[in-house]
Amino acid sequence: MNARNLLMLLLPVFGIIAACASSKNYDPEFNAAPQDVQSDWPLARERCSQCHSLDRVFEYVDASTSRDEIEMIVEDMAGRKKSEIQDDEIPRIVEVLDWRRQK
Fold this sequence. Notes:
The chain has 6 helices and no strands. The chain has helices at residues 3-24, 27-30, 35-48, 54-60, 67-78, 90-101. The chain starts with a helix and ends with a helix. The protein is globular, with a radius of gyration of 16 Å. By secondary structure, the chain is an all-alpha fold.
């Protein structure tokens, strides 16, 4: 296999690594989270990072944001055209973001 073919095979891998880079900053924090938050963290990370970085989410949803506001935000995001957030996922994502904002 020549170098060009190898590069073409590795490009998608590099893209995935780059897309996940910002979320890795927050993974260690979730190791201390309750089990339900830990189990729903990958879902929240996947759904939220479809449209923007998790850094942006965590800057917007901070200690001054109420749980009701978080729920309204997630419901709004779920209603967006590009969103893949399902109705049954909303409370799970809200739980993760609510736990995170309290940190």
